[in-house]
TrEMBL record:
Species, as recorded: Janibacter alittae
Co-factor requirement: pyridoxal 5'-phosphate
EC class name: lyase
EC number: 4.2.1.22
Source species taxonomy: Bacteria, Bacillati, Actinomycetota, Actinomycetes, Micrococcales
Alphabetically ordered keywords of this record: CBS domain, Lyase, Pyridoxal phosphate
Portion of the full sequence shown: 1 to 329 of 459
Keyword Lyase: yes
Signal peptide: none
Name this protein carries in UniProt: Cystathionine beta-synthase
Entry keyword RNA-binding: no
């Protein structure tokens, strides 16, 4: 019988689907790797399992311990899933720009969540890094996966995401496009694809305008889970051949199009990555591009998919203002 022993056994092996409607005629092929089909709903399930496996193996994580992590939600869900299976307690520290829906999900999985301000520098005592470090020190036997610096993050992607994409494209992939948050996805997946293709696969980062990866100062942007105001150790800047900056406006407009035109209800960082992928596809008609879509859109219904929220930031484009019109049923 084909029955998994635990939901965490179903992490990875996500499918690729061709994008069609959003891809302008004459562009290269764009295939999306649909990471929201992981059991916890995001790409982060992959690293959660690897980080915990390796910490158990090294003795850093002992039975019954508490896992403390600064996370915008998705890593928390992954960690909570694996923690449940193995009997650990979880405390997550989230910046206040993260949607309520995402926080509620973490709590539903049984985790404790502490909310901290988004708009303070990383070295401020209330920043999500500082609060996590303090909790880790204070709680006896606490372990912090430290996704921003833990090299098992990129390793998880080297071992799973990279080899899956190579096999699924039968080695025909020419470009990988992925957003950069901790940098784990692009570093691990990109490194694998560069090595196995002997440098033929080009690795393209997608980054919110304002973030340091695309030359910004770290000034705020609204897309969640990507971009940074510091340089995490999980990111190897020598892996991407190019980093494309994308505005919030472009990211959110594309996120809405993906739901309406491609049947892909995904988050804002997916929209951002697709905008970057389409730029590559338009300039390279022979390209075979894989773009990674990190999470699903249900956590953003009150934001990106909400006309009022969008309009409050001046984002709603004229041709997208048809929601709720008389003709809608
Ligand atoms: N998109 C979303 C929604 C995320 O939660 C993350 C993880 N922070 C990313 C993209 C980026 O992934 P990575 O941390 O591997 O760079």
């Amino acid at each position: 019988m084909q029955i998994a022993d635990h939901i965490t056994d179903l992490i990875g092996d996500t499918p690729l689907v061709r994008l069609s409607s959003v891809v302008p005629p004459g562009s290269g092929l764009v295939a999306a790797k649909v990471e929201y089909l992981n059991p916890g709903g995001s790409v982060k399930d992959r690293i959660a399992r690897k980080l915990i496996d390796e910490a158990e193996a090294s003795g850093e994580l002992r039975p019954g311990a508490t896992i403390v992590e600064p996370t915008s939600g998705n890593t928390g869900v992954g960690l909570a899933l694996v923690a449940q299976e193995r009997g650990y307690r979880c405390i997550f520290v989230c910046p206040d720009k993260v949607g309520k829906d995402k926080i509620d999900v973490l709590r539903a999985y049984g985790a404790q969540v502490q909310i901290v301000p988004s708009s303070v520098p990383p070295d401020h005592p209330d920043s999500y890094y500082s609060v996590s470090d303090r909790l880790t020190e204070e709680i006896d036997g606490a372990w912090q996966p430290n996704q921003f610096f833990n090299l098992n993050g990129p390793r998880a992607h080297y071992e799973s995401t990279g080899s899956e994409i190579w096999a699924q494209t039968e080695g025909e992939i020419t470009h990988l496009v992925a957003g950069i948050g901790t940098g784990g996805t692009i570093t691990g997946t990109g490194r694998y694809l560069k090595e196995i293709s002997e440098g033929h696969v080009k690795i393209i980062g997608a980054d919110p305008e304002g973030s340091v990866y695309s030359g910004g100062t770290g000034r705020p942007y609204l897309v969640e889970g990507v971009g940074e105001d510091m340089w995490p150790g999980a990111y190897d800047p020598s892996v991407p051949d190019e980093v494309i900056a994308v505005t919030d406006d472009e990211s959110f407009a594309m996120t809405r199009r993906l739901a309406r035109e491609e049947g892909l209800l995904v988050g804002g960082s997916s929209g951002m990555a697709v905008v970057a992928a389409l730029r590559v596809a338009q300039r390279e008609p022979d390209a075979k591009i894989v773009v990674l879509l990190p999470d699903g859109g249900r956590g953003y219904l009150g934001k990106i998919f909400d006309d009022e929220w969008m309009a409050s930031y001046g984002f709603l484009p004229g041709d997208d203002a048809t929601q709720g019109s008389v003709g809608d049923v």
